Amino acid sequence: MDIEFNKNEDINKQLVYDLNLRLKKIYLGGGEKAIAKHKEKGKMLARERVNYLIDAGKPWLEMGAFAGDGLYAEHGGCPSGGVVCGIGYVSGRQCVIIANDATVKAGAWFPITAKKNLRAQEIAMENRLPVIYLVDSAGVYLPLQDEIFPDKEHFGRIFRNNAIMSSMGIIQISAIMGPCVAGGAYLPIMSDEAMIVEGTGSVFLAGSYLVKSAIGEDVDNETLGGATTQCEISGVTDYKHPNDKACLDSIKNIMGMVGDFVKAGFDRVKPAAPKLDPKDIYGLLPDNREKAYDMMEILLRLLDNSEFEEYKAGYGQSIICGLGRVDGWAVGIVANERKVIKSKKGEMQFGGVIYSDSADKATRFIMNCNQKKIPLVFLQDVTGFMVGSRAEHGGIIKDGAKMVNAVANSVVPKFTFVIGNSYGAGNYAMCGKAYDPRLIYAWPSAKIAVMGGGSAAKTLVQIQAAGLKARGEEVDAAKEAQLLKETTDRYNSQTTPFYAAARLWVDGIIDPLETRKVISMGIEAANHAPIEKAFNVGIIQT
Ligand SMILES: CCC(=O)SCCNC(=O)CCNC(=O)[C@H](O)C(C)(C)COP(=O)(O)OP(=O)(O)OC[C@H]1O[C@@H](n2cnc3c(N)ncnc32)[C@H](O)[C@@H]1OP(=O)(O)O
User: Could you report the predicted ipTM of this complex, rounded to two decimals?
Assistant: First the structure.
Protein backbone atom coordinates (compact mmCIF):
# COMPACT_ATOMS: atom_id res chain seq x y z
CA MET A 1 0.00 0.00 0.00
CA ASP A 2 1.30 3.48 -0.79
CA ILE A 3 1.79 6.43 1.55
CA GLU A 4 -1.29 8.21 0.22
CA PHE A 5 -3.49 5.18 0.96
CA ASN A 6 -2.16 4.91 4.52
CA LYS A 7 -2.65 8.63 5.13
CA ASN A 8 -6.25 8.51 3.87
CA GLU A 9 -6.90 5.42 5.94
CA ASP A 10 -5.70 7.11 9.14
CA ILE A 11 -7.79 10.20 8.50
CA ASN A 12 -10.99 8.37 7.52
CA LYS A 13 -10.71 5.96 10.45
CA GLN A 14 -10.23 8.95 12.75
CA LEU A 15 -13.42 10.51 11.32
CA VAL A 16 -15.34 7.32 12.10
CA TYR A 17 -13.84 7.22 15.59
CA ASP A 18 -14.93 10.83 16.19
CA LEU A 19 -18.39 10.02 14.85
CA ASN A 20 -18.76 7.16 17.34
CA LEU A 21 -17.54 9.35 20.22
CA ARG A 22 -20.16 11.97 19.39
CA LEU A 23 -22.84 9.30 19.15
CA LYS A 24 -21.87 7.91 22.56
CA LYS A 25 -22.43 11.33 24.10
CA ILE A 26 -25.74 11.77 22.28
CA TYR A 27 -26.93 8.37 23.54
CA LEU A 28 -26.83 9.83 27.06
CA GLY A 29 -29.94 11.86 26.15
CA GLY A 30 -30.76 14.37 28.90
CA GLY A 31 -27.65 13.37 30.90
CA GLU A 32 -26.75 11.30 33.99
CA LYS A 33 -29.03 13.19 36.43
CA ALA A 34 -32.12 12.92 34.26
CA ILE A 35 -31.34 9.24 33.59
CA ALA A 36 -31.12 8.50 37.33
CA LYS A 37 -34.44 10.32 37.94
CA HIS A 38 -36.09 8.39 35.10
CA LYS A 39 -34.83 5.01 36.37
CA GLU A 40 -35.91 5.73 39.95
CA LYS A 41 -39.48 5.57 38.66
CA GLY A 42 -38.85 1.99 37.46
CA LYS A 43 -38.89 3.05 33.81
CA MET A 44 -36.55 1.76 31.10
CA LEU A 45 -34.70 4.38 29.04
CA ALA A 46 -35.91 5.03 25.49
CA ARG A 47 -32.97 3.18 23.92
CA GLU A 48 -33.34 0.29 26.40
CA ARG A 49 -36.99 0.00 25.40
CA VAL A 50 -36.07 -0.11 21.72
CA ASN A 51 -33.31 -2.67 22.32
CA TYR A 52 -35.68 -4.89 24.26
CA LEU A 53 -38.39 -4.58 21.61
CA ILE A 54 -36.34 -5.42 18.52
CA ASP A 55 -35.26 -8.91 17.52
CA ALA A 56 -31.87 -9.87 18.92
CA GLY A 57 -29.21 -10.39 16.26
CA LYS A 58 -31.14 -8.46 13.60
CA PRO A 59 -29.94 -5.05 12.37
CA TRP A 60 -31.28 -1.75 13.68
CA LEU A 61 -31.09 1.32 11.46
CA GLU A 62 -31.27 4.48 13.51
CA MET A 63 -32.51 7.64 11.89
CA GLY A 64 -31.91 11.18 13.13
CA ALA A 65 -29.51 10.36 15.99
CA PHE A 66 -27.86 13.76 15.38
CA ALA A 67 -31.15 15.69 15.14
CA GLY A 68 -30.91 18.82 17.27
CA ASP A 69 -27.14 18.44 17.73
CA GLY A 70 -25.79 21.87 18.67
CA LEU A 71 -29.27 23.46 18.55
CA TYR A 72 -31.28 24.98 21.44
CA ALA A 73 -28.20 25.57 23.63
CA GLU A 74 -30.11 28.26 25.57
CA HIS A 75 -32.75 25.61 26.47
CA GLY A 76 -30.19 23.03 27.57
CA GLY A 77 -30.06 21.25 24.19
CA CYS A 78 -32.23 18.55 22.66
CA PRO A 79 -30.11 15.43 21.96
CA SER A 80 -31.53 13.28 19.15
CA GLY A 81 -34.47 15.70 19.09
CA GLY A 82 -35.69 14.03 22.30
CA VAL A 83 -36.90 10.98 20.39
CA VAL A 84 -35.27 7.76 19.19
CA CYS A 85 -36.38 6.68 15.69
CA GLY A 86 -35.37 3.95 13.33
CA ILE A 87 -36.20 0.82 11.40
CA GLY A 88 -35.94 -2.47 13.27
CA TYR A 89 -37.41 -5.97 13.28
CA VAL A 90 -40.10 -6.90 15.79
CA SER A 91 -41.06 -10.59 15.78
CA GLY A 92 -39.47 -10.86 12.34
CA ARG A 93 -41.34 -7.86 10.85
CA GLN A 94 -39.69 -4.66 9.75
CA CYS A 95 -41.22 -1.72 11.64
CA VAL A 96 -40.57 1.96 12.18
CA ILE A 97 -40.07 2.62 15.89
CA ILE A 98 -40.57 6.07 17.46
CA ALA A 99 -39.64 6.24 21.16
CA ASN A 100 -39.76 9.50 23.18
CA ASP A 101 -36.76 10.11 25.38
CA ALA A 102 -38.28 11.50 28.58
CA THR A 103 -34.82 12.35 29.96
CA VAL A 104 -34.89 15.30 27.53
CA LYS A 105 -37.38 17.82 29.04
CA ALA A 106 -39.92 15.09 29.88
CA GLY A 107 -40.07 14.12 26.18
CA ALA A 108 -41.50 17.54 25.23
CA TRP A 109 -41.54 18.37 21.55
CA PHE A 110 -39.02 20.87 20.20
CA PRO A 111 -39.32 22.01 16.56
CA ILE A 112 -36.73 19.41 15.51
CA THR A 113 -38.73 16.71 17.35
CA ALA A 114 -41.69 17.42 15.11
CA LYS A 115 -39.52 17.37 12.00
CA LYS A 116 -38.00 14.04 13.04
CA ASN A 117 -41.37 12.45 13.87
CA LEU A 118 -42.75 13.61 10.55
CA ARG A 119 -39.75 12.11 8.75
CA ALA A 120 -40.20 8.80 10.59
CA GLN A 121 -43.89 8.78 9.67
CA GLU A 122 -42.96 9.64 6.07
CA ILE A 123 -40.62 6.63 6.00
CA ALA A 124 -43.44 4.45 7.33
CA MET A 125 -45.93 5.79 4.78
CA GLU A 126 -43.63 5.55 1.75
CA ASN A 127 -42.65 2.01 2.66
CA ARG A 128 -45.95 0.96 4.23
CA LEU A 129 -44.18 -0.21 7.35
CA PRO A 130 -46.00 -0.69 10.66
CA VAL A 131 -45.18 1.96 13.28
CA ILE A 132 -44.65 1.33 16.97
CA TYR A 133 -44.75 4.43 19.19
CA LEU A 134 -43.26 4.17 22.68
CA VAL A 135 -44.79 7.33 24.09
CA ASP A 136 -43.51 9.25 27.10
CA SER A 137 -44.06 12.92 26.29
CA ALA A 138 -45.08 16.20 27.89
CA GLY A 139 -46.43 17.50 24.55
CA VAL A 140 -45.35 20.79 23.01
CA TYR A 141 -42.16 22.34 24.43
CA LEU A 142 -43.95 25.42 25.68
CA PRO A 143 -41.18 28.06 25.42
CA LEU A 144 -40.91 27.37 21.66
CA GLN A 145 -44.62 26.87 20.95
CA ASP A 146 -44.61 29.46 18.16
CA GLU A 147 -42.10 27.35 16.19
CA ILE A 148 -43.89 24.08 16.63
CA PHE A 149 -47.61 24.41 17.17
CA PRO A 150 -49.84 25.69 14.34
CA ASP A 151 -48.14 25.43 10.95
CA LYS A 152 -48.59 22.70 8.35
CA GLU A 153 -45.36 20.90 9.17
CA HIS A 154 -45.70 21.41 12.93
CA PHE A 155 -47.01 19.21 15.71
CA GLY A 156 -50.61 18.88 14.46
CA ARG A 157 -49.41 17.18 11.29
CA ILE A 158 -48.41 14.13 13.36
CA PHE A 159 -52.01 13.36 14.33
CA ARG A 160 -53.22 14.13 10.82
CA ASN A 161 -50.68 11.52 9.68
CA ASN A 162 -51.92 9.06 12.31
CA ALA A 163 -55.35 9.29 10.71
CA ILE A 164 -54.09 9.16 7.11
CA MET A 165 -51.83 6.20 7.86
CA SER A 166 -54.70 4.37 9.45
CA SER A 167 -56.78 4.85 6.31
CA MET A 168 -53.82 3.61 4.24
CA GLY A 169 -53.89 0.37 6.21
CA ILE A 170 -50.60 1.05 8.01
CA ILE A 171 -50.47 -0.68 11.39
CA GLN A 172 -49.86 1.67 14.35
CA ILE A 173 -49.42 0.39 17.90
CA SER A 174 -48.72 2.67 20.86
CA ALA A 175 -47.41 2.04 24.33
CA ILE A 176 -47.97 4.74 26.96
CA MET A 177 -44.87 4.40 29.10
CA GLY A 178 -44.84 7.68 30.99
CA PRO A 179 -46.98 10.78 31.37
CA CYS A 180 -48.43 11.63 27.94
CA VAL A 181 -49.89 15.09 28.08
CA ALA A 182 -51.96 17.15 25.63
CA GLY A 183 -50.37 16.62 22.19
CA GLY A 184 -48.46 13.70 23.71
CA ALA A 185 -51.84 12.16 24.51
CA TYR A 186 -53.42 12.33 21.04
CA LEU A 187 -50.71 10.35 19.29
CA PRO A 188 -51.19 7.05 21.17
CA ILE A 189 -54.94 7.30 21.10
CA MET A 190 -54.95 7.92 17.32
CA SER A 191 -53.13 4.58 16.89
CA ASP A 192 -54.91 1.28 16.15
CA GLU A 193 -54.43 0.19 19.72
CA ALA A 194 -52.81 1.59 22.83
CA MET A 195 -51.36 -0.16 25.83
CA ILE A 196 -50.41 1.50 29.10
CA VAL A 197 -47.99 0.74 31.92
CA GLU A 198 -49.49 0.71 35.42
CA GLY A 199 -48.06 3.23 37.85
CA THR A 200 -45.88 5.11 35.35
CA GLY A 201 -48.06 5.55 32.27
CA SER A 202 -50.78 8.19 32.20
CA VAL A 203 -52.59 9.98 29.43
CA PHE A 204 -54.67 13.15 29.61
CA LEU A 205 -55.38 16.32 27.69
CA ALA A 206 -54.44 18.52 30.65
CA GLY A 207 -52.33 17.60 33.66
CA SER A 208 -53.26 18.29 37.27
CA TYR A 209 -51.69 21.80 37.31
CA LEU A 210 -53.69 22.96 34.30
CA VAL A 211 -56.89 21.32 35.59
CA LYS A 212 -56.48 23.19 38.88
CA SER A 213 -55.90 26.52 37.17
CA ALA A 214 -58.63 26.00 34.55
CA ILE A 215 -61.51 24.61 36.60
CA GLY A 216 -60.20 24.58 40.16
CA GLU A 217 -60.40 20.79 40.46
CA ASP A 218 -57.86 19.08 42.72
CA VAL A 219 -56.89 15.77 41.15
CA ASP A 220 -53.65 13.84 40.86
CA ASN A 221 -52.33 12.63 37.48
CA GLU A 222 -52.93 8.95 38.27
CA THR A 223 -56.63 9.48 39.04
CA LEU A 224 -56.91 11.81 36.08
CA GLY A 225 -55.52 9.43 33.45
CA GLY A 226 -53.52 6.53 34.90
CA ALA A 227 -53.70 2.94 33.65
CA THR A 228 -56.70 1.92 35.75
CA THR A 229 -58.67 5.06 34.88
CA GLN A 230 -58.05 4.76 31.14
CA CYS A 231 -58.49 0.98 30.90
CA GLU A 232 -61.38 0.51 33.30
CA ILE A 233 -63.28 3.81 33.55
CA SER A 234 -62.84 5.72 30.29
CA GLY A 235 -62.01 2.80 27.94
CA VAL A 236 -59.44 5.06 26.23
CA THR A 237 -56.62 2.46 26.39
CA ASP A 238 -56.82 -1.20 25.43
CA TYR A 239 -54.27 -3.15 27.47
CA LYS A 240 -52.84 -2.60 30.97
CA HIS A 241 -49.38 -3.96 31.81
CA PRO A 242 -47.52 -4.10 35.12
CA ASN A 243 -44.20 -2.80 33.77
CA ASP A 244 -42.26 -1.72 30.67
CA LYS A 245 -41.04 -5.22 29.77
CA ALA A 246 -44.52 -6.77 29.93
CA CYS A 247 -45.81 -3.95 27.76
CA LEU A 248 -43.08 -4.46 25.15
CA ASP A 249 -43.64 -8.25 25.25
CA SER A 250 -47.27 -7.63 24.39
CA ILE A 251 -46.28 -5.57 21.32
CA LYS A 252 -43.93 -8.36 20.20
CA ASN A 253 -46.75 -10.85 20.62
CA ILE A 254 -49.18 -8.81 18.53
CA MET A 255 -46.60 -8.12 15.82
CA GLY A 256 -45.87 -11.85 15.60
CA MET A 257 -49.45 -12.45 14.46
CA VAL A 258 -49.65 -9.86 11.68
CA GLY A 259 -50.43 -11.34 8.26
CA ASP A 260 -48.59 -10.82 4.96
CA PHE A 261 -49.23 -8.03 2.47
CA VAL A 262 -48.57 -7.67 -1.28
CA LYS A 263 -44.94 -6.79 -2.03
CA ALA A 264 -43.38 -4.50 -4.66
CA GLY A 265 -41.33 -7.38 -6.04
CA PHE A 266 -37.80 -5.98 -6.32
CA ASP A 267 -35.35 -8.59 -7.57
CA ARG A 268 -33.16 -10.36 -5.04
CA VAL A 269 -30.80 -13.32 -5.33
CA LYS A 270 -28.56 -14.99 -2.76
CA PRO A 271 -26.41 -12.24 -1.19
CA ALA A 272 -22.65 -12.27 -1.65
CA ALA A 273 -19.96 -10.15 0.01
CA PRO A 274 -17.86 -7.86 -2.21
CA LYS A 275 -14.73 -9.65 -3.51
CA LEU A 276 -12.68 -6.52 -2.87
CA ASP A 277 -12.42 -5.58 0.81
CA PRO A 278 -14.86 -2.76 1.77
CA LYS A 279 -12.35 -1.62 4.43
CA ASP A 280 -10.14 -0.42 1.55
CA ILE A 281 -12.61 2.47 1.21
CA TYR A 282 -10.87 4.17 4.15
CA GLY A 283 -7.64 4.25 2.16
CA LEU A 284 -9.17 5.04 -1.23
CA LEU A 285 -11.25 8.05 -0.17
CA PRO A 286 -8.90 11.08 -0.17
CA ASP A 287 -8.25 13.05 2.99
CA ASN A 288 -9.58 16.24 1.44
CA ARG A 289 -12.56 16.99 -0.77
CA GLU A 290 -10.66 18.63 -3.58
CA LYS A 291 -8.52 15.64 -4.47
CA ALA A 292 -9.35 13.35 -7.37
CA TYR A 293 -9.95 9.61 -6.94
CA ASP A 294 -11.43 6.69 -8.81
CA MET A 295 -15.10 6.24 -7.84
CA MET A 296 -15.18 2.83 -9.52
CA GLU A 297 -12.77 1.54 -6.85
CA ILE A 298 -15.27 2.60 -4.16
CA LEU A 299 -18.22 1.10 -6.02
CA LEU A 300 -16.58 -2.28 -6.44
CA ARG A 301 -16.18 -2.44 -2.66
CA LEU A 302 -19.88 -1.89 -2.08
CA LEU A 303 -21.30 -4.36 -4.60
CA ASP A 304 -21.87 -8.11 -4.22
CA ASN A 305 -18.94 -10.05 -5.71
CA SER A 306 -17.53 -6.63 -6.71
CA GLU A 307 -19.46 -7.05 -9.96
CA PHE A 308 -20.77 -4.07 -11.93
CA GLU A 309 -22.55 -3.95 -15.29
CA GLU A 310 -21.51 -0.50 -16.47
CA TYR A 311 -23.88 1.50 -18.69
CA LYS A 312 -22.38 3.64 -21.50
CA ALA A 313 -18.91 3.19 -20.01
CA GLY A 314 -17.20 5.39 -22.60
CA TYR A 315 -19.76 8.21 -22.68
CA GLY A 316 -20.64 10.99 -20.23
CA GLN A 317 -17.91 9.71 -17.96
CA SER A 318 -18.20 12.26 -15.17
CA ILE A 319 -21.15 10.18 -13.94
CA ILE A 320 -20.83 6.40 -13.59
CA CYS A 321 -24.07 4.48 -14.15
CA GLY A 322 -24.68 0.77 -14.07
CA LEU A 323 -26.30 -2.24 -12.46
CA GLY A 324 -25.10 -4.39 -9.60
CA ARG A 325 -26.36 -6.05 -6.45
CA VAL A 326 -26.20 -5.17 -2.78
CA ASP A 327 -26.93 -7.98 -0.34
CA GLY A 328 -28.60 -9.76 -3.22
CA TRP A 329 -30.91 -6.84 -4.18
CA ALA A 330 -30.61 -5.51 -7.75
CA VAL A 331 -29.65 -1.81 -7.78
CA GLY A 332 -29.05 0.88 -10.38
CA ILE A 333 -26.05 2.97 -9.40
CA VAL A 334 -25.61 6.64 -10.28
CA ALA A 335 -22.26 7.92 -8.96
CA ASN A 336 -20.13 10.99 -9.57
CA GLU A 337 -16.75 10.14 -11.05
CA ARG A 338 -14.01 11.98 -9.18
CA LYS A 339 -11.02 11.60 -11.45
CA VAL A 340 -10.15 13.94 -14.29
CA ILE A 341 -11.43 12.49 -17.56
CA LYS A 342 -10.33 12.93 -21.14
CA SER A 343 -13.50 12.30 -23.15
CA LYS A 344 -13.37 10.45 -26.47
CA LYS A 345 -13.97 13.85 -28.13
CA GLY A 346 -10.67 14.96 -26.59
CA GLU A 347 -12.30 17.25 -24.02
CA MET A 348 -10.82 17.36 -20.49
CA GLN A 349 -13.53 17.05 -17.84
CA PHE A 350 -13.18 17.75 -14.12
CA GLY A 351 -14.14 15.00 -11.69
CA GLY A 352 -17.23 15.67 -9.59
CA VAL A 353 -18.71 18.02 -12.19
CA ILE A 354 -21.84 17.16 -14.17
CA TYR A 355 -21.48 17.90 -17.90
CA SER A 356 -24.20 17.79 -20.56
CA ASP A 357 -23.22 14.33 -21.74
CA SER A 358 -23.17 12.83 -18.22
CA ALA A 359 -26.55 14.40 -17.34
CA ASP A 360 -27.93 13.01 -20.58
CA LYS A 361 -26.60 9.53 -19.82
CA ALA A 362 -27.81 9.54 -16.20
CA THR A 363 -31.30 10.62 -17.30
CA ARG A 364 -31.57 7.73 -19.73
CA PHE A 365 -30.22 5.28 -17.16
CA ILE A 366 -32.66 6.46 -14.46
CA MET A 367 -35.53 6.04 -16.92
CA ASN A 368 -34.25 2.54 -17.70
CA CYS A 369 -34.24 1.58 -14.01
CA ASN A 370 -37.83 2.80 -13.68
CA GLN A 371 -38.80 0.72 -16.70
CA LYS A 372 -37.19 -2.37 -15.13
CA LYS A 373 -38.33 -1.81 -11.54
CA ILE A 374 -34.79 -1.53 -10.22
CA PRO A 375 -34.19 0.66 -7.11
CA LEU A 376 -31.71 3.51 -7.58
CA VAL A 377 -28.66 4.24 -5.43
CA PHE A 378 -26.98 7.65 -5.74
CA LEU A 379 -23.41 8.18 -4.54
CA GLN A 380 -22.84 11.91 -4.32
CA ASP A 381 -19.48 13.60 -4.64
CA VAL A 382 -20.50 16.51 -6.81
CA THR A 383 -19.44 20.13 -7.01
CA GLY A 384 -22.28 21.06 -9.39
CA PHE A 385 -23.01 21.40 -13.09
CA MET A 386 -20.33 22.68 -15.48
CA VAL A 387 -20.29 26.46 -15.86
CA GLY A 388 -18.95 28.80 -18.55
CA SER A 389 -19.85 29.72 -22.11
CA ARG A 390 -18.93 26.36 -23.63
CA ALA A 391 -21.26 24.51 -21.22
CA GLU A 392 -24.04 27.09 -21.55
CA HIS A 393 -23.87 27.07 -25.36
CA GLY A 394 -24.03 23.28 -25.19
CA GLY A 395 -27.35 23.54 -23.32
CA ILE A 396 -26.22 22.45 -19.86
CA ILE A 397 -29.39 23.91 -18.29
CA LYS A 398 -31.71 21.73 -20.33
CA ASP A 399 -29.59 18.62 -19.81
CA GLY A 400 -29.48 19.25 -16.07
CA ALA A 401 -33.22 19.90 -16.06
CA LYS A 402 -33.74 16.60 -17.85
CA MET A 403 -31.85 14.73 -15.13
CA VAL A 404 -33.71 16.57 -12.35
CA ASN A 405 -36.97 15.65 -14.10
CA ALA A 406 -36.11 11.94 -14.27
CA VAL A 407 -34.99 11.86 -10.62
CA ALA A 408 -38.05 13.77 -9.39
CA ASN A 409 -40.50 11.60 -11.33
CA SER A 410 -38.87 8.24 -10.55
CA VAL A 411 -41.31 5.75 -9.12
CA VAL A 412 -38.70 3.21 -8.02
CA PRO A 413 -37.27 3.82 -4.53
CA LYS A 414 -34.16 6.00 -4.35
CA PHE A 415 -31.36 5.87 -1.77
CA THR A 416 -28.74 8.57 -1.48
CA PHE A 417 -25.30 8.57 0.11
CA VAL A 418 -23.37 11.82 0.39
CA ILE A 419 -19.83 10.52 0.44
CA GLY A 420 -17.99 13.73 -0.48
CA ASN A 421 -19.17 17.08 -1.79
CA SER A 422 -22.84 17.81 -2.31
CA TYR A 423 -22.92 21.27 -3.81
CA GLY A 424 -25.32 23.35 -5.86
CA ALA A 425 -27.80 21.83 -8.26
CA GLY A 426 -25.60 18.72 -8.18
CA ASN A 427 -27.26 18.00 -4.81
CA TYR A 428 -30.65 18.15 -6.52
CA ALA A 429 -29.83 16.12 -9.64
CA MET A 430 -28.13 13.46 -7.53
CA CYS A 431 -31.26 13.00 -5.42
CA GLY A 432 -30.70 15.27 -2.43
CA LYS A 433 -33.27 15.39 0.38
CA ALA A 434 -35.71 17.49 -1.70
CA TYR A 435 -36.01 14.65 -4.23
CA ASP A 436 -37.61 12.14 -1.87
CA PRO A 437 -34.88 9.58 -1.31
CA ARG A 438 -36.39 6.83 0.82
CA LEU A 439 -33.25 7.15 2.93
CA ILE A 440 -30.35 9.59 2.74
CA TYR A 441 -27.18 9.10 4.78
CA ALA A 442 -23.86 10.93 4.80
CA TRP A 443 -20.38 9.55 5.34
CA PRO A 444 -18.24 11.50 7.83
CA SER A 445 -16.36 12.89 4.81
CA ALA A 446 -19.48 14.64 3.44
CA LYS A 447 -19.82 18.37 2.78
CA ILE A 448 -23.23 19.82 1.97
CA ALA A 449 -23.84 23.42 0.86
CA VAL A 450 -24.92 25.57 -2.03
CA MET A 451 -21.23 25.77 -2.95
CA GLY A 452 -17.84 25.03 -1.39
CA GLY A 453 -16.61 27.39 1.34
CA GLY A 454 -13.78 28.74 -0.82
CA SER A 455 -15.98 29.49 -3.85
CA ALA A 456 -18.78 30.95 -1.74
CA ALA A 457 -16.37 33.19 0.14
CA LYS A 458 -14.73 34.47 -3.05
CA THR A 459 -18.14 35.15 -4.65
CA LEU A 460 -19.55 36.88 -1.57
CA VAL A 461 -16.41 38.94 -1.01
CA GLN A 462 -16.58 40.21 -4.61
CA ILE A 463 -20.22 41.25 -4.06
CA GLN A 464 -19.51 42.83 -0.65
CA ALA A 465 -16.41 44.64 -1.92
CA ALA A 466 -18.36 46.05 -4.91
CA GLY A 467 -21.10 47.26 -2.50
CA LEU A 468 -18.62 48.93 -0.17
CA LYS A 469 -16.82 50.59 -3.09
CA ALA A 470 -20.16 51.83 -4.49
CA ARG A 471 -20.81 53.51 -1.11
CA GLY A 472 -17.41 55.17 -1.40
CA GLU A 473 -15.69 52.96 1.19
CA GLU A 474 -12.12 51.91 0.73
CA VAL A 475 -11.64 48.16 0.36
CA ASP A 476 -7.95 47.46 0.76
CA ALA A 477 -6.28 44.06 0.58
CA ALA A 478 -6.42 43.62 4.37
CA LYS A 479 -10.18 44.31 4.48
CA GLU A 480 -10.74 41.87 1.59
CA ALA A 481 -8.67 39.21 3.35
CA GLN A 482 -10.69 39.71 6.55
CA LEU A 483 -14.01 39.38 4.66
CA LEU A 484 -12.71 36.28 2.93
CA LYS A 485 -11.68 34.64 6.19
CA GLU A 486 -14.95 35.43 7.98
CA THR A 487 -17.05 34.08 5.14
CA THR A 488 -14.92 30.98 4.63
CA ASP A 489 -15.04 30.16 8.36
CA ARG A 490 -18.80 30.60 8.50
CA TYR A 491 -19.35 28.47 5.41
CA ASN A 492 -16.97 25.77 6.57
CA SER A 493 -18.81 25.45 9.87
CA GLN A 494 -22.09 25.04 7.96
CA THR A 495 -20.95 22.45 5.43
CA THR A 496 -20.14 19.62 7.87
CA PRO A 497 -22.23 16.44 7.93
CA PHE A 498 -23.02 17.16 11.59
CA TYR A 499 -24.56 20.52 10.70
CA ALA A 500 -26.67 18.76 8.05
CA ALA A 501 -27.67 15.84 10.29
CA ALA A 502 -28.64 18.18 13.16
CA ARG A 503 -31.19 19.75 10.81
CA LEU A 504 -32.27 16.43 9.26
CA TRP A 505 -31.05 17.33 5.78
CA VAL A 506 -29.79 13.74 5.96
CA ASP A 507 -31.16 10.84 8.00
CA GLY A 508 -27.82 10.27 9.68
CA ILE A 509 -24.06 9.91 9.41
CA ILE A 510 -22.66 6.42 8.96
CA ASP A 511 -19.37 4.60 8.82
CA PRO A 512 -18.87 3.85 5.07
CA LEU A 513 -18.87 0.17 6.03
CA GLU A 514 -22.55 0.45 7.00
CA THR A 515 -23.58 1.53 3.49
CA ARG A 516 -24.51 -1.97 2.33
CA LYS A 517 -26.66 -2.49 5.43
CA VAL A 518 -28.57 0.76 4.80
CA ILE A 519 -29.20 -0.12 1.15
CA SER A 520 -30.34 -3.64 1.98
CA MET A 521 -32.64 -2.63 4.84
CA GLY A 522 -33.92 0.28 2.75
CA ILE A 523 -34.85 -1.91 -0.22
CA GLU A 524 -36.38 -4.52 2.06
CA ALA A 525 -38.50 -1.73 3.56
CA ALA A 526 -39.40 -0.36 0.12
CA ASN A 527 -40.44 -3.83 -0.99
CA HIS A 528 -43.44 -3.53 1.37
CA ALA A 529 -44.92 -0.80 -0.84
CA PRO A 530 -46.07 -1.91 -4.29
CA ILE A 531 -45.40 0.71 -7.00
CA GLU A 532 -48.80 2.12 -7.83
CA LYS A 533 -47.94 5.01 -10.16
CA ALA A 534 -46.79 4.62 -13.77
CA PHE A 535 -43.44 6.23 -14.59
CA ASN A 536 -44.02 9.45 -16.53
CA VAL A 537 -41.57 12.31 -16.93
CA GLY A 538 -44.06 14.65 -18.56
CA ILE A 539 -42.30 17.06 -20.93
CA ILE A 540 -38.65 16.06 -21.09
CA GLN A 541 -36.13 18.79 -21.88
CA THR A 542 -34.60 17.47 -25.15
C1 LIG B 1 -50.74 20.32 21.53
C2 LIG B 1 -50.77 21.12 22.80
C3 LIG B 1 -49.71 20.68 23.80
O4 LIG B 1 -49.07 19.69 23.67
S5 LIG B 1 -49.53 21.71 25.12
C6 LIG B 1 -48.38 20.89 26.14
C7 LIG B 1 -48.87 20.92 27.52
N8 LIG B 1 -48.02 20.10 28.34
C9 LIG B 1 -48.05 20.12 29.66
O10 LIG B 1 -48.78 20.86 30.25
C11 LIG B 1 -47.10 19.20 30.36
C12 LIG B 1 -46.34 19.88 31.46
N13 LIG B 1 -45.42 18.95 32.10
C14 LIG B 1 -45.78 18.15 33.12
O15 LIG B 1 -46.91 18.14 33.58
C16 LIG B 1 -44.70 17.29 33.69
O17 LIG B 1 -43.47 17.75 33.22
C18 LIG B 1 -44.84 15.79 33.33
C19 LIG B 1 -45.09 15.59 31.84
C20 LIG B 1 -46.00 15.19 34.14
C21 LIG B 1 -43.53 15.04 33.69
O22 LIG B 1 -43.20 15.27 35.01
P23 LIG B 1 -41.74 14.89 35.57
O24 LIG B 1 -41.38 13.54 35.08
O25 LIG B 1 -41.75 15.11 37.02
O26 LIG B 1 -40.75 15.89 34.86
P27 LIG B 1 -40.55 17.44 35.17
O28 LIG B 1 -41.85 18.10 35.38
O29 LIG B 1 -39.51 17.59 36.23
O30 LIG B 1 -39.96 17.93 33.77
C31 LIG B 1 -38.61 17.70 33.36
C32 LIG B 1 -38.14 18.96 32.66
O33 LIG B 1 -38.96 19.14 31.48
C34 LIG B 1 -39.57 20.42 31.51
N35 LIG B 1 -40.90 20.31 30.87
C36 LIG B 1 -41.84 19.41 31.11
N37 LIG B 1 -42.87 19.58 30.30
C38 LIG B 1 -42.56 20.63 29.52
C39 LIG B 1 -43.23 21.30 28.44
N40 LIG B 1 -44.39 20.87 27.96
N41 LIG B 1 -42.62 22.35 27.89
C42 LIG B 1 -41.44 22.77 28.33
N43 LIG B 1 -40.75 22.17 29.32
C44 LIG B 1 -41.31 21.11 29.90
C45 LIG B 1 -39.65 20.78 32.99
O46 LIG B 1 -39.74 22.15 33.16
C47 LIG B 1 -38.32 20.21 33.47
O48 LIG B 1 -37.28 21.09 33.05
P49 LIG B 1 -35.93 21.27 33.91
O50 LIG B 1 -35.29 19.92 33.92
O51 LIG B 1 -36.38 21.69 35.28
O52 LIG B 1 -35.16 22.30 33.16
Answer: 0.98
